[in-house]
Amino acid sequence: MKNLATPFSLYLLLFFSSCTQPKKIKNQEISNLKTSHFVDIRDGKKYKTVLIGNQWWMAENLAFKTEGSVQVDGPDNRNYGRLYHWNEALLACPKGWALASDRDWTILETLISDNLNVFPGSTWRGKHGYLLKSLHNWKLDGNGIDKYGFNVHPAGHIIDDSPPEFGYTAGYWTSSGSVESGIAWVRFFAAPKNGVNRLESDINTTLLFCRCIKE
C-alpha cells in the first residue's frame, strides 16, 4: 500500500485487515526499565525518555514547532505533540536524537512481542500494540496497558487536510523512505486493534507524529 486511506475507509481497513530478525531478549531483561528526561534547548520543552532494550526512546510525541506542523490538543486540553510532513519530520528531532527508522521500530517490536514471525511485510502484526498504547483516551475499548512507558496516545493523523480525530488512531513516520518514491514506512495503532500496522504512506499528503530515538 502506498497511501493511507480517507478517515472512514481507513477505519474499515483498520477493523477488517488483519531481513534478519533482532535477537529477542528475555522478559526479565526489560522488566527493569530505565527512565529519564531530556530538555530540548531549542524551545525548553522537557520530554520523558525510556530505555527499552538498548534503545533510548522519547516517551512522548515530538512537539517542536516547524512551519508546516500541526499541534494536536486533546479533549483534556493537553498537548499531544505535533503532526509533521515527512520532509520536516526528518529534521525535527533535536541534536543527538533522530527520527526512528523502520528498523528501529522493528527492533522495538521484536523485543516486546511473543511472535518473531509476524514482522516481515506490510500488515497488522502481533498483539504488542496493546503493550505500547496508553491507559486512557482510546475509544472502542481500545486502551492499552503501556507496559513499557512508551505512551502511545490516540492523537490521530492528517490525510489530505482532513482534521485529526482524537481517540481512534496514532500514526508515526519512520525515516525510511525517499522523495523519489514519494512514500515512507510508517507505524499505525488503532482503537479496535491490539497489533501494530507496518505500511507505506504518501509523504506529500499525510501528516503523522514523530518519535525520536537517541543516536
From TrEMBL:
<feature type="domain" description="Fibrobacter succinogenes major paralogous">
    <location>
        <begin position="50"/>
        <end position="214"/>
    </location>
</feature>
<dbReference type="Pfam" id="PF09603">
    <property type="entry name" value="Fib_succ_major"/>
</dbReference>
<protein>
    <recommendedName>
        <fullName>Fibrobacter succinogenes major paralogous domain-containing protein</fullName>
    </recommendedName>
</protein>
<dbReference type="InterPro" id="IPR011871">
    <property type="entry name" value="Fib_succ_major"/>
</dbReference>
